[in-house]
Amino acid sequence: MKKLWKMFSDLLDVARGRLPEDLGPAQGIRLLSGAALSSLAFVAAWGIAAGSTDAVLALSNAAKVPMVLLFSVLAALPAGLLAHRLSDSSESTRSLLLTLGGSIFAGSLVAAVLAPLVAVYYLSSAWAGPYLGMGSAFLAVGVAAVLLFRGGVRGAPATERKSRLIPKLVFAAVTLGVMPQFIALASPILPEHTIFDEGIDVVDAMPAEVR
Predict the structure, then answer these.
(1) Residue 25: what pLDDT?
(2) Is the separation of the CB atoms in 151 and 80 below 8 Å?
(3) What are the sequence ranges of the domains in the chain?
(4) Which ranges constitute the DSSP H helices of 18-127?
(5) pLDDT 10s digits, 151-165
(6) Distances, alpha carbon 196 to alpha carbons 31, 49, 144, 187, in Å
């Protein structure tokens, strides 16, 4: 139990941009693995809460929501790593991956913390439930993005900040670009219909004056 709490504490430090001073390959792998598994579990809890009005939807969300997160991150990793190499940053690949993992861990944790509230409102309010479901998802993504960019410049020399931010920007852009499509493939996730259920095709369905 102490080891799990230590890893949790270390991941929170990483999310705040404070990498362990004695970070070695083994510890880096341990933290990355812990961040990945924890993040998948956290968003699964959110998925269950978001589908709590339908037992079948809740159970399917326990698998679908983590898969959306996993595939979105995996799709963005090659572009982010390529940008890291081309930007000529002195930041190590291990540190970059830990910064990414820590920000995703924190964003997923926000979703998990709000999951009970999402479930309660979905079960008790037809009006507020959808707003809270969508709002909590946007908040989790926003927290992850802010921590990712803050971690990219924290403690870095002024001359290094631009080159360190470039791969994070690329990673965030590709992740946010592919995630709506994975959400569309996994839909339904929320009980009600949302603009994300159709992915990019929703643009074609908009009236011309809106586009």
Answers:
(1) 77
(2) no
(3) 24-205
(4) 25-50, 55-86, 93-124
(5) 777 766 677 778 888
(6) 32, 18, 20, 8
